[in-house]
Design goal:
Elements: H1 2-21, H2 31-41, E1 74-81, E2 85-90, E3 96-99, E4 103-106, H3 115-123, E5 131-139, E6 142-149, E7 155-160, H4 165-171, E8 180-189, E9 192-197, H5 200-205, E10 218-223, E11 227-232, E12 239-241, E13 246-248, H6 249-256, E14 264-270, E15 276-282, E16 290-292, E17 296-300, E18 307-314, E19 321-325, H7 330-336, E20 349-351, H8 353-376, H9 382-402, E21 410-413, E22 429-432, E23 438-443, E24 449-452, H10 459-464, E25 473-481, E26 487-490, E27 507-512, H11 519-534, E28 538-540
Parallel strand pairs: 6-10, 11-17, 18-22, 21-28, 23-27
Antiparallel strand pairs: 1-2, 1-5, 3-4, 6-7, 8-9, 8-10, 11-12, 13-16, 14-15, 14-17, 18-19, 20-21, 20-22, 23-24, 25-26, 25-27
Length: 544
């Protein structure tokens, strides 16, 4: 297992080596990748995040001027002047409160903002002058409501009569996003409809009408009847519910919020014979187009680019961002670059977003395969099972960290490449490194580190200056990363091959030996580490 530990630590080192010869260029997903992410997100329903438990425990008293006093409410009452009183009174089963020295006063059905005036009128029937009244509700009536229909946990729930319908639905663990309606929610009282709620008003505009519940009310979440799927270049890629059989494209855009880059819509529909048809429409001239229930609509950017933007980084005397015509070759741009005294134009590289995407997919596929092998490997004995478990923990930790690596999309430029045949893409980064007179030696040597380049020093002398190979070194497996990013496998122990002439800017990595009993897993990890280390470099040759 020592071999596995050594190898897993080695992959971390590769990043340090590459830092010395490359630049840290983050791969930014292109429009296609962003759309893929949004398509995956669109499996969620618009409003799916609303009911997460944050409403159900909130029982704050809220002032509602339109609230009608009901049985069970508590009234704060203050009288002063000829008669002083400071008390709390409950509204009894007949809708009355009892005021000492005044008698019973009916308050049921009185608006909250009229409560003081109403009670004062009753008090003045006993005390004609010099008695002043202030009254307000200390608490609303506690109620129990039934929540049923397309909710996750139908049942009887307690709350206050002033609580919102969102609070009661949240107590029922929210709406079932597969079948429930966010736009057709009914409140029944004695089997009669007293309120209908459309939660899109709250989700989009933040408006929610206050409603006064009573004991025994029933909240019914109806099943969804009409909907459309929206994906693509929009800020809200979800499944949307329709109140009517169709909606205009202009009306839909107000809700889904297309990004400024969106120019067209692709509408997929099915007829009565289940035959699919796909049509594309320009957004600018089809605002009145109707989108029907059951259809899916994808917003796409469909621009005809005349120019592209590229970046020039590293050591040079030019500006760092250029806008050039689409189809411009690398030779055309390179001929305009002005180098500084420290520039090393022979080692320049390209970093390309589309290449980085391919590299990421390749590494992900290899990691998935390694994970499957790790989790399905069997054991014969108890001791072997324990070792396998320890190995698996190390490998899975490596996989988790390797998934976080973002390839750079490096393109290596070979010496004899015809640069006039290499056409630039939008977002390309042309990197001009500094001249380097350092040689980095790392891996299984006694004292790894950097040292100055000397033209007549041999490969073996560079190794010797680091104290020589360690006891775990595989002196038949050395990786050399040249200053232009090109990778060479070198066997120093071969008597048939020529000695490698070390060049300034080279990075030498001595790989460790692999224990034969861990050969397969280490082989798989080595391949992945190699892909991560060299960034799955694409070599451009004369046939590219």
């Amino acid at each position: 297992m020592r071999s596995i530990q050594t190898l897993l630590l080695t992959w971390l080192f590769f990043g340090t080596v590459l830092w010395a010869v490359n630049i840290s260029t983050e791969a930014t997903p292109d429009t296609t990748e962003r759309n893929i992410t949004r398509v995956e997100a669109s499996s969620k329903v618009f409003g799916y995040h609303l009911f997460n438990g944050s409403f159900s425990e909130n029982r704050q008293f809220r002032y509602n001027p339109n609230y009608l006093v009901n049985i069970g409410d508590t009234v704060n009452l203050k009288l002063w002047g000829a008669f002083d009183l400071d008390t709390q009174l409950s509204v009894d089963s007949q809708g009355h409160i009892f005021i000492p020295k005044v008698g019973t006063v009916s308050v049921i059905g009185i608006r909250n903002d009229q409560l003081s005036k109403s009670i004062q009128a009753s008090v003045k029937e006993v005390y004609k002058t010099n008695v002043f009244v202030y009254a307000d509700l200390a608490n609303y009536q506690p109620v129990s409501l039934f929540v049923t229909g397309a909710v996750n946990r139908p049942g009887l729930y307690e709350g206050l009569s002033s609580d919102s319908i969102i609070q009661f639905i949240d107590k029922a663990s929210g709406i079932d996003t597969e079948s429930g309606s966010f736009r057709d929610i009914k409140v029944l009282r004695q089997n009669k409809l007293v309120k209908q709620v459309d939660l899109y008003e709250f989700l989009i505009f933040g408006t929610l009408e206050l409603f006064q519940f009573r004991m025994g009310d029933v909240i019914v979440v109806e099943s969804i009847k009409r909907y459309i799927e929206v994906t693509g270049d929009v800020k809200r890629p979800y499944r949307y519910e329709l109140l009517k059989p169709s909606i205009s494209l202009a009306g839909l855009q107000k809700t889904v919020l297309p990004n400024p880059t969106a120019t067209n819509v692709v509408i997929t529909r099915w007829d009565k014979d289940n035959v699919q048809s796909v049509r594309i429409h320009d957004m600018a001239t089809n605002s009145k187009l109707r989108v029907n229930s059951g259809e899916s609509i994808r917003f796409i950017p469909d621009h005809t680019a005349q120019n592209i933007e590229i970046e020039i980084s590293g050591e040079h005397a030019n500006i760092h961002n250029l806008v050039v015509a689409k189809g411009t070759s690398l030779a055309e741009v390179f001929s305009t670059l002005r180098m500084s005294a420290l520039s090393d134009p022979e080692a320049f590289q390209i970093f390309r977003k589309s290449i980085a995407t391919q590299q990421k997919k390749l590494i992900s596929a290899q990691l998935n395969d390694l994970e499957t092998k790790t989790l399905t490997t069997g054991s014969v004995t108890t001791e072997e099972a324990l070792i396998r478990k320890q190995e698996a923990a190390l490998v899975l930790n490596f996989i988790e960290r390797a998934r976080q690596v973002e390839p750079k999309g490096q393109v290596i430029i070979n010496k004899d490449t015809d640069l006039s045949q290499v056409f630039l893409e939008d977002g390309d980064n042309i990197y001009i490194p500094k001249k380097s007179h350092m040689v980095i030696v790392q891996g299984e040597v006694m004292l790894p580190g950097a040292q100055t380049y000397v033209s007549d020093m041999s490969f073996d002398e560079y190794i010797a200056s680091c104290g020589g190979y360690s006891f775990r070194a595989d002196d038949e497996n050395v990786i050399i990363i040249q200053k232009n990013g090109k990778v060479i496998n070198y066997d120093p122990s071969s008597y048939m091959g020529d000695d490698y002439a070390v060049q300034p800017g080279d990075s030498i990595l001595v790989v460790g030996k692999v224990d034969s009993k861990f050969l397969q897993v280490v082989k798989d990890i080595t391949q992945i580490v190699y892909q991560i280390a060299v960034g799955a470099a694409v070599v451009i040759n004369t046939n590219y």
